[in-house]
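For reproducibility, we list the full input for the NAP complex.
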Amino acid sequence: MRIAILGGTGNIGKGLALRWAYKHEIIIGSREQSKAEQMKESYEQILLENTTKTCNISGVKNDKAVAAADIVIVAVPYKALKSLVDSIHPFLTNQVIVSLVVPMEKQNSYLKYVQPDDGSAAAELKKLVPDAIGVVAAFHNLSARKLCNLESHLDYDVVVCGSDKEAKKKVIELIEDINGIRPLDGGGLENAAIIESLTPFLINLARRNNLHELGVKFV
Ligand SMILES: NC(=O)c1ccc[n+]([C@@H]2O[C@H](COP(=O)([O-])OP(=O)(O)OC[C@H]3O[C@@H](n4cnc5c(N)ncnc54)[C@H](OP(=O)(O)O)[C@@H]3O)[C@@H](O)[C@H]2O)c1
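The corresponding predicted structure, in tokenized form, follows.
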């Protein structure tokens, strides 16, 4: 699969790029070509030190990344969502979009989920893109730090929500390619708010209990 990671220069985008690059063609997207190229080189270096497998990564501006992709991962802060979609809209044809976006803000010392008017960031994204584009919500409850550390053993579930069954199936298959992560079908896109809102809860839980890199695992 050709996977564009928009915001692939950031924390969680880096983790996904490193975990998928041995099997898929990864296109790091950024607002700046030079930043995308620089991060591509740094990820290649990390992969060289950690695996003997050949990896395929490129780095380009977000719109070019979308034009070349089958799957588009949206890994930018919520405040950037609308401007990002505006910039890629002409290049959306038949890709599947995966939203990792969590709308949250600091309140006192803790984080709070700020529910968008459309119900969730993923539902808002669905309204912003052409009707033919399948939107799936996933990865919200994974720790970027853990994902980025290739020596770190993963043992998490990732709940996947989406109303387009074909799109959701493709994303579930991609998640199965990451060792230690079990994808779980979380139903339609209307459930995305549940997994988005879990993220600030997990971060607060970790802070209150002096824990690190909490994720979810259903047993
Ligand atoms: N970090 C985690 O553990 C984690 C886990 C699950 C989900 N998430 C969610 O995933 C998303 C990304 O998180 P992150 O921690 O990876 O974020 P981040 O590192 O702060 O940002 C990711 C990338 O977003 C782009 N960006 C930042 N501001 C932007 C703007 N105003 N307009 C367009 N692009 C902008 C930047 O890329 P360029 O400068 O290269 O364009 C940046 O490298 C967030 O919505 C977050 O809630 C994060």
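The CA atoms of residues 3 and 71 lie 5 Å apart. The longest strand covers residues 156-162. Both points were considered when choosing residues for closer inspection.
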